[in-house]
Amino acid sequence: MVSLDSTFGAAYIGVVIAGILHGVTCVQALYYFLHQTDGWGLKGIVTAVMVFDTIHQALISHTVYTYVISNYFNPAILNATVWSLLLEVLFNGFTALLVQGFLAMRVWHLSSRNIWLTGLVSSFVIGEFGCVVVFAVYALIHVHTFEELGALKALSITVNALAAAGDITITTALVCLLAQSRPRFANSRRMIKMLIIYSINTGLITTLCAIASLVSILAWGHTFIYITFFFCIGRLYSNSLLATLNARKRIRASGEGVNTTSDNQGMGFSLKDISSQSKAGTLGTKTSIGRVGLGSAFSGGGRHPTNISIKIDTTKEFATDDGRMASNEKDNDDSGSSKDSLTFQEMIHETTGSKEVV
User: Fold this and answer.
1) 358 pLDDT band (50/70/90 cuts)?
2) Which residues are paired to 329 by β-bridges?
3) What's the CA gap between 191 and 281, in Å, rounded?
4) Phi and psi, residue 350, nearest 5°
5) Mean pLDDT of 173-190
6) pTM of the predicted model as reported, rounded to 2 decimal places
7) Mind listing the pLDDT tens digit for each residue in 255-312?
8) Fewer C-beta within 10 Å: the chain N or C terminus?
9) Interior CA angle at 204 toward 152 and 183, to 5°?
10) What is the pLDDT of residues 316-335, one digit of tens each?
């Protein structure tokens, strides 16, 4: 007698959790299309992920409904495989391919087009998708019972192992590449830290789910416990993609503001203010700091600050995920552009800038 708790009960739990995660995905997708201005390429990826995610949710819902509702009081159906249970594997694979492929492109850009590192990541992604296609096609043609499905256990283990290996490799590569960048400005360092945290969090969730599915199929292969995790992994991929895309503005905002080479921003002033005052001949014993709010940088009372940081306003260029270059000119004066603040460059013989992938 089949234990319903560890088989179709586990599948039912997976459908419920996947449905909840699909609702979260829909909310994130709505926010993305209302607030993000990416090109059609990236929007196409998000749209395709949402379509595959929705189809997958419909398929697994059909599977559980067929077993527990349509064939209620029909124990014979419990040993037969439903077509939707086999086909859903393919759409999970489509979602994983798009999301992992998107992250592989990030590795490609951050590594300055390192073909070996990107090739390693791509091998896991393509290998996983290839196994998924073989599994789905073979199962739809030759598998009619769960005993016959057991013959594909090795292929199921391979799919989960490649998924976990791919997620670990992508997360490790992104974290290492981001950690290697050593920006001089404190705000830029803060932005890099946030990128690392987001990379770890999004990659860790999908990795743990893939590992849980792998362990459960090895330890309890005669149950559907592994199906619980496999039903949810596609939702985690789509949510991690949308969370990454929707967090970009917040991460960029953390890198704006007063840039200094030290985390201590106790005193600073813009070269633009000094330049304009020196040209007018008004730079004397008292120079106004302005928005820093610390009064004057130099006073005639004999008190001299022990630590003065000179802030140079810069123009930042961000390489967007769809390949476009976005200029982010942040001027610390309420009038004029940040390029004007470099008119004092003949005195310092240096210009600064930054280029970051967010």
Assistant:
1) very low
2) 315
3) 39
4) -155, 140
5) 79
6) 0.72
7) 665 454 444 444 444 444 555 555 555 444 444 444 444 444 444 445 555 555 555 5
8) N
9) 140
10) 555 556 655 555 444 444 43
Could you tell me the two tokens for 1? 């007698």
Q: What is the 3-state secondary structure (H, E, C) of the chain?
A: CCCCCCCHHHHHHHHHHHHHHHHHHHHHHHHHHHHCCCCHHHHHHHHHHHHHHHHHHHHHHHHHHHHHHHCCCCHHHHHECCHHHHHHHHHHHHHHHHHHHHHHHHHHHHCCCCHHHHHHHHHHHHHHHHHHHHHHHHHHHHCCEHHHHHHHHHHHHHHHHHHHHHHHHHHHHHHHHHHHCCCCCHHHHHHHHHHHHHHHHHHHHHHHHHHHHHHHHHHCCCCCHHHHHHHHHHHHHHHHHHHHHHCHHHHHHHCCCCCCCCCCCCCEEEHHHHHHHHHCCCCCCCCECCCCCCCECCCCCCCCCCCCEEECCCEEEEECCCCCEEEEECCCCCCCCHHHHHCCHHHHCCCCEEEEEC
pLDDT interval class at 195 (50, 70, 90):
confident
Question: What is the Cα–Cα distance from 205 to 197, expressed in whole angstroms?
Answer: 13
Report in angstroms the alpha-carbon separations of 195 from 164, 178, 262: 21, 8, 20
Identity of the residue numbered 122 = S
Structure tokens given for 195: 């990128």
CA distance 332 to 314: 10
Q: Please answer whether residues 171 and 206 qualify as being in contact, where contact means their C-beta atoms are separated by less than 8 angstroms.
A: no
